[in-house]
Amino acid sequence: MAKKKASETKTTANIDFEAKLWLAADKLRNNMDAAEYKHVVAPYQGRIYDPACGSGGMFVQSEKFVESHGGKLGDISIYGQASNATTRRLAIMNLSIRGIEADIGKEHADTFRNVQHPDIAGFCFSATTEQIASHGYVLTPGRYVGAEEVEDDGEPFEGKMPRLVAELQAQFAEFAKLEQTIKANLKGLGYEL
């Protein structure tokens, strides 16, 4: 009898868990078209990671979003992976013909079993089944990735907080002035608020 590979052996628990994850992902995505992802992600700059990037459509749309908002190609760093070898090659081709640099992992791989990108605080994290279960199978990234470490600027909190509050107070005052100007201009046009 031929021995099955570990990747071919699925227990009922694994199948149930994957089913829950896919249902949660569908709820989060709400059957959204890849062209609409850009409005959810709003990727002006920084990193974008898609653990199931398919042919890279979200990445293409994200770059278009950046460019349509005054940014340029390369303002975002793209990371992803695809479980199907052919689809992965399509993603690489799709991005390459548009001049979009991306790290789609060293090989095709299933995100659930073979994550191609390491944990990076504030960016991506490979959660265990137990960690996901402890959050009721909610896949909101903030629950897992944490915050990126920020270098200490050396300004003591006792001085920083009053300075920031004063800046905020000045911004509120400026906002109030602008709001009154806008209301006056609208009133002059016959539109009173």
- Taking Cα atoms only, what radius of gyration do you get, to the nearest Å? 23 Å
Low-confidence stretches: 1-9
CATH topology of the largest domain: Rossmann fold
Structural class: mainly alpha
User: Helicity level, as a percent range?
Assistant: 40-55%
| First and last CA, distance | 80 Å
Structure description:
By secondary structure, the protein is mainly α. It folds into 2 domains: 134 residues, Vaccinia Virus protein VP39 (Rossmann fold, 3-Layer(aba) Sandwich), CATH 3.40.50; 39 residues, no CATH class. It has 7 helices and 3 strands, in the order H-H-E-H-E-H-E-H-H-H. Strands 1-2-3 form a 3-stranded parallel sheet, covered by helices on one side. Helix 2 packs across helix 3. The chain is extended and about 60 Å long.
Report a brief summary of the structure:
This protein has helices spanning 12-29, 34-41, 57-68, 85-96, 129-134, 142-145, 157-188; strands at residues 46-50, 76-80, 102-103.
